[in-house]
């Protein structure tokens, strides 16, 4: 009798997402560690300018303008590419680090506009009241995955993320709260701990997207099956 390997899938829950993310993190650790390092280096210029003590000088004003351009026109491509590789690891797919930079030659406009649209929507939510901003942030958490994974345009990605997270907002909020705790624990373990924390948090959210995407596919297949088996009037 042949032994078939049973593939495990993530659960649509806080614990299930972090548990599956933890499992996959160690399975693909070197790839994910490299992704985290690249994203950290990509974020470094922005962090350095924000922490500067000479923000009011003319030179720093120019640097801030350049940093804003970098943050909106270059950084999202690397971050969205990183999210795609996290997702690939959750699905046990082949990982190619070069995919992190594919957005510069394909899908670039969708990435930039999706990031800008999400930032504007969530930002407006925080301007009016903090709670709407948190709700919007939770509901639009999967925009980057949808742009990279499904190749959706910005508006379609926002709408699909809103649809996917319907009924799961509290789970995503809980994941965010747990992420803060994990990050703080990572800080207590210095730089190495922060990297482990960030990788685990990212795998957890990629796991939740993967689980909800699988649920969507099942619903679609069941819908087609029902339609095909429906009696002819």
Describe, in short, the structure shown.
This protein is mostly helical and 233 residues long.
Question: Care to describe what's here?
Answer:
This protein is an all-alpha fold. The protein has one domain (14-218). It is 76% helix and 0% strand. It contains ten helices and no strands. It starts with 13 loop residues before the first helix and ends with a helix. Residues 1-5 have low confidence and may be disordered.
Salient structural properties:
mainly alpha, single chain, 233 residues, 10 helices, disordered N terminus
Radius of gyration: 20 Å
Order of helices and strands: HHHHHHHHHH
Average pLDDT level? 88
In total, the number of domains comes to 1
SS field, number of helical segments: 10
* Helicity level: over 70%
Whole-Å distance between the termini?
46 Å
Number of strands: 0
What does the main sheet amount to? none
Pick out the low-confidence regions: 1-5
Shape: globular
SSE-based structural type: mainly alpha
Strand content: under 5%
SSE order and pairing:
Layout: H1 14-27, H2 29-50, H3 58-73, H4 75-90, H5 108-128, H6 130-139, H7 143-149, H8 154-164, H9 169-188, H10 190-229
């Amino acid at each position: 009798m042949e032994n078939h390997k049973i593939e495990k899938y993530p659960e649509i829950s806080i614990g299930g997402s972090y548990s599956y993310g933890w499992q996959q993190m160690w399975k693909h650790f070197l790839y994910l560690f490299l992704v985290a390092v690249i994203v950290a280096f990509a974020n470094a210029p922005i962090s350095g300018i924000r922490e500067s003590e000479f923000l009011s000088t003319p030179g720093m004003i120019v640097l801030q303008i350049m940093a804003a351009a970098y943050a909106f026109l270059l950084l999202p491509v690397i971050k969205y590419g990183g999210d795609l590789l996290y997702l690939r690891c959750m699905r046990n797919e082949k990982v190619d680090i070069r995919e992190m930079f594919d957005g510069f030659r394909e899908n670039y406009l969708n990435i930039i506009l999706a990031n800008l649209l999400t930032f504007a929507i969530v930002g407006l939510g925080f301007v009016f009241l903090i709670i709407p901003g948190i709700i919007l942030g939770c509901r639009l958490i999967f925009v980057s995955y949808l742009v990279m994974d499904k190749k959706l345009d910005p508006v379609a990605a926002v709408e699909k993320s809103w649809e996917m997270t319907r009924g799961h907002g509290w789970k995503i909020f809980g994941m965010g709260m747990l992420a803060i705790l994990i990050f703080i624990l990572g800080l207590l373990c210095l730089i190495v701990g922060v990297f482990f924390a960030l990788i685990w948090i990212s795998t957890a959210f990629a796991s939740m997207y993967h689980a909800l995407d699988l649920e969507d596919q099942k619903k679609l297949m069941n819908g087609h099956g029902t339609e095909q088996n429906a009696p002819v009037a």
